[in-house]
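Example record

The entry below shows one chain as it appears in the dataset: sequence first, then structure tokens.
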Amino acid sequence: MPKVSERRPSVRTGRDGEEDTKPSPFAPSIREFLSYLKVEAGLSPATLEAYGRDLRDLATHLDSLGLTGPDVVTPEHVAAHFRYLHRDRGLEPSTITRHFATVRVYFRYLHANKRIPHDPSRLADRPTTWKRLPGVLSPNQMKALVLAPTPEHGALWLRDRAMLELMWAAGLRASEVGTLKVNEYHDTLCMLTVTGKGSKQRVVPIGTPAQELIRQYLAEFRPHLARFKDGRDQFKLFLSHTGRPLERVAVWQIVRKYATIAGLRDVHPHTLRHSFATHLVRGGADLRVVQELLGHADIGTTQIYTHVDRSRLRDVVRNHHPRFDRPRAASPAA
């Protein structure tokens, strides 16, 4: 099979040199596929958004190769796309694996519905994934981050501090921060009801610092943000200055802003989630409990946190294994 040129995707231009707004030949099939996922498969909006992003990346790349539609895509084109994601885009293996799953389902759907004569992704090799230790912050670094918002950083400083404290206290994903509702915070029970991936709910206890900040935010700040009477707040817990729920991108921007202020590098919302889980494991929490608090469907996803603190392993064996030599207590003086 001839080698496929792996040009980087670029904006289409017409003969006059201006941007060509002609839609991608892949657009109709992508719309049909996403409609099927929404109506027939009942996938959540967040999952549909992820599928859409992956397929737009695929279409942009295949457009740059001059392909005229899904029916002319070959296995080599699919392989070239994954090489592009890895070499040119520098995406993480876990992200490429998600792309791989999206592309496989997309072409499988088109083939099953006789939109294409063959499935070009059928023989594609699944991207190799490896466990990579997540970046985490120490407790002192986390304290510096959550204390970074102060009145001198703007009128929304208390909202930002409450949000950061709650993300650390409950291990929240960025998307979960934006979807939290006021009635999902249970002050008397010191609990938070979180709706995660696949609309699965979990209940997470939260500590006193997060509780106190949420109380203050609800009493002093949120009423001013929810001053509009058109229902734009949608009863969400955290609001923007316009009274609308916080978008995931805004959560990223807030975390990065205060990480920079606190002198921390390479910090993003998932760093707080990793730190939450790591601090629990280091404190001796059972892995099944951590799995439940994170909302992981598979314990294998949670097991990565068993590697974050190898210094505990020797202590655990020393203290609990019957055949491990332990220092003998000094004999009392005769």
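Notes for this example: Strands lie at 185-186, 191-195, 201-205. The CA atoms of residues 325 and 331 lie 17 Å apart.
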